[in-house]
Amino acid sequence: MQFHSGSASGGAGRRPYAVINRWQRMIGVSLLCIPVLVAAQSSPNSTSASTAPPAGDSRASKAKPATTLGEIIVTANRRREPSREVPMHVDTVQASDLQKVGARTLSDYVSYQPGVFFASSGGAGEGELIMRGVSTGNQTSPTVSVYMDDVPVGGSTEYASAATFVFDAALMDLDHIEFLYGPQGTLYGAGSMGGLVKYVTNKPDASGFSGSAGFDISHTQQAGMNYTERATLNIPLVQDKAALRVSVMDQHSAGLYRAVGETPSHGDDRTHTQGVRAQLEVDPTDKLTFNLSAMVQRIAADGLSMADYSLATGQPLSGGPYNRQLNHREPFTQTLQLYSFHAGYDFGWANLDWISSYQNFVNHSVQDYPDGFLVLYNQLYPALGGDSALSSLYVDSQYNVHKASQEIRLTSRKGDHFDWLAGLWFNREDEWEQYALEGANLPPPGQSILLAQRVNSRYQEYAGYGDVTWHITPTIDLAAGVRASGNSQHLSNFEDGSVAGSPGGFRESMVSDDITKMLTASYRPDTTHSYYMRASTGYRPGGLQAPVQSTVFGSNPNAKDTFGSDTLQSYELGYKGSHLDGRLNVGIDAYDIEWHNMQLITYTVGNAIIENAGDSRIDGLELQVTYATGPWQLSGSGAYTDARTLQGNPQQGIEDGARLPYSARETATLAAKYNFRLAGDAAYAGANLRLSSQRNAGFEGDSSDPDFNLPGFAMLDLDTGMTLHSGVSVDLYLRNALDRRVAIGTLNSESVSFLASVGGPMLVQLSTPRTLGVSVNVPF
User: Fold this and answer.
1) In the prediction, which pLDDT does 68 show?
2) Which of 5, 66, 103, 227 could cross-link 71 (Cys pair, CB 3.0–4.6 Å)?
3) This prediction's pTM
4) Euclidean distance between CA atoms 560 and 547, whole angstroms
5) Longest Cα pair distance anywhere in the chain, in angstroms?
């Protein structure tokens, strides 16, 4: 069966044979693993997996998930079911485990997940989330969706700079984080082409009062002290019927980077994160439940976590590895207000869920332009229509997203022959952008505004989706799903100034639709082994853009006022199993992805346009293994990703076969933990080794978005701790124990990339140096 969605094109007549060959190659790769699996299966597991709750249960689990691959309960398929029974690659990480090792940001959370990468472009909340190599470097809109429970967070389109600003959740009363690999378009819609990250919160418990308080103190080499305070209260309002849960946190991170030049500062990127969440759950009957949630989180950074580096040599330019030449300070803030309501009713034969949400997501940033642009402007300002030379040149921008969503979902109980799911979805996003390119006059006083831009947009998406699973036999399942989506978009823009690309104003609108599909087959010979095949599709919506005409260089013949959707098809084979009486758990999968009509950003002087150009292909292999024996717990996971273009873009200098940005061919995580008793209390000591091969920050040879080499690395983390009889836990950690300092991200903005290509500084973020800390948690 052929899978594609939207307007994917090219080679349609050859696709059936390509699909057959693709499955043959993937089956061949998987067959190489059979001897290992057969050997492990020679000692069959006689213990069945834990019994899952009803598949359609609309309420989140109040019990902590187990740690074995086969027993973790996830919600990837919008049902609560053991991860072993989900026919795709799903990983989970417990928030308590992240806390023990001093993880504080999204970049830390994903660093333990091979095949997942956060390409930072400035610090917490600024960057691009990538899974399975699905990235063009400078993204138009996200390829990975972020959810808080059942609610998508952040913008969906380029109008909100949604691929640049990602919600960076603090560890505020989270239970765990789920990573869903591969396209999730059927159940989760647009923007989840590469995968999905879901934060799952702890739910109110009406059975009794409880709470916790804790703190975290650490020291980072060359930066200073970091500290976090957190507290949670669970308050039953009506015994077994209603409860309120409130959480607060306050987190300070020391600044590592140093501003030199006109605005010198030590610790220029100091960051302060604050948050509060309240959840009210009411269960009037055993069948009816209501959950009302409200949260606010604010990140405030004094500056970007970026330093000046040479594109040609990869060496620092401003006197030190963490130094940045600045003429103007660069504060950044990210504020999320999220409100959601969830009602669930159990009909017996099915569960009905209604999820309503509203959010206000605001990102405000300032970026100083390098001296090269300032010098150039001061030479050309009379020809550009400027009034004065400048002593500084910077961009001040704010993106404000108001997003409301509604979802109604009906999920059947697990049946002997069939089970199904059907839902309706509506999303409306109103987005406002205020952008100014300005600087201080020379001589003072006064300011000059070279470009002032105000953009208003509305994005409305509506969809119907569903899937059906046919239990052909007690051991064989076949499932199919489809999602039909439509969207309408409206864009209005007004801009003025001497370097305006589209002076004056304009209004545009468009309507489009897309279809995503999914087909899986799974075979479970017993309760401890599962084999599956999966084919699925994903897409990002097209959109509107300004009819660009540079006031200096004339019209751009490639500029259009619209661009189309890009789409992908994914084919995956996998195995999940438990062996040796549950001590050994194995998960392995191989996948093949075809990405069509990629949305690429092309820079013109003063402007950027989006084009659909070229196809790509991504092949990969992923492996997860856990083994427990006596006091030892060992685990390892790895990913091989071969992501490259099939058809490049000669206009931009992107060749056929060029590697996709930010995709490392090999990544892995190895971990060991030893449990013991200390003075009669439970204690442990552990180590984590994070490994990655080299990455590129852009396409090699890209003329408008220069590539910067991000070298491979091996980072060792150590941790130890104990839990006292009272329940108080104390954990010590040493992150990046070997003090490896390597580039992990770049700021690929138009101005920086252009100047770097002619010898100016490339803005680069390095890995955080060695950090020693202690985390204490006191339950009550």
Assistant:
1) 36
2) 66
3) 0.88
4) 6
5) 82
Residue 54 has a pLDDT of: 39
Q: How many whole angstroms separate alpha carbon 683 and alpha carbon 21? A: 52
- In DSSP terms, 623 is beta-bridged to 588, 638
> Cβ atoms within 10 A of the Cβ of 285, count?
9
> Are 567 and 542 contacting, i.e. CB atoms less than 8 angstroms apart?
no
Average pLDDT rounded to a whole number, residues 349-376:
92
Q: By C-alpha distance, which of 723, 714, 762 is closest to 741?
A: 714
Which pair of structure tokens corresponds to residue 692? 């990655």
Contacts of 105 (CB under 8 A, 6+ apart): 124, 168
Peptide bond into 443 cis (omega under 30): yes
Distance of CA 720 to the CA centre of its chain: 29
160 vs 574, more confident:
574
What the block records as the tokens of 306 is 């970026």
Asked if residue 203 lies in contact with residue 281, where contact means CB atoms within 8 angstroms, the answer is yes
Question: In the chain, what percentage of residues exceed pLDDT 70?
Answer: 85
Q: Which contacts of 376-380 are long-range, i.e. CB under 8 A and separated by 24 or more positions?
A: 377/439, 377/450, 378/442
For the stretch 507-551, pLDDT in tens is 999 999 999 999 999 999 999 999 999 999 999 999 998 765 544
- Burial status of residue 414 (CB atoms within 10 A of its CB: 0-12, 13-18, 19 or more): middle
Q: What is the pLDDT of residue 558?
A: 62
| Through-space distance between the first and last CA atoms of the chain, rounded to whole angstroms | 56
Q: What is the number of other CB atoms lying within 10 angstroms of the CB of residue 19?
A: 18
- For residue 46, the model assigns a pLDDT of 35
Tell how far CA 101 is from the center of its chain: 20
pLDDT tens-place string over residues 640-674: 999 999 987 777 778 888 999 999 999 999 999 99
The CA distance from 312 to 720, in Å, is 42
Check whether 270 has a pLDDT greater than 50. yes
CB 107 within 8 A of CB 114: no
Structure tokens at 238: 């009506």
Q: Find how far residue 324's CA is from the centre of its chain.
A: 27
Q: Which residues contact 307 (CB under 8 A, 6 or more apart)?
A: 257, 316, 318, 320, 321, 322, 323, 324, 763, 764, 765, 766
The reported pLDDT for the residue numbered 701 is: 73
- What does the pLDDT average to over 601-611? 70
Q: Which residue has the higher pLDDT, 604 or 622?
A: 622
Q: Using CA of residue 524, residue 525, residue 526, residue 530, what is the dihedral sign? A: negative
Sequential DSSP letters for 679-746: TTEEEEEEEEEEEE--EESS-TT-SSS---EE--EEEEEEEEEEE-TTS-EEEEEEETTT----EEEE
- Provide the b/e sequence for 20-37 (b: ≥16 CB within 10 Å): eebeeebeebbeeeeeeb
Residue 357 CA, chain-centre distance (Å), reads 20
596: tokens are 């069509």
pLDDT attached to residue 747: 83
In tens, the pLDDT along 107-133 reads: 999 999 999 999 988 899 999 999 999
Check: CB of residue 770 under 8 Å from CB of residue 736: yes
| Cα–Cα distance measured from residue 69 to residue 67, given in angstroms and rounded to the nearest whole number | 7
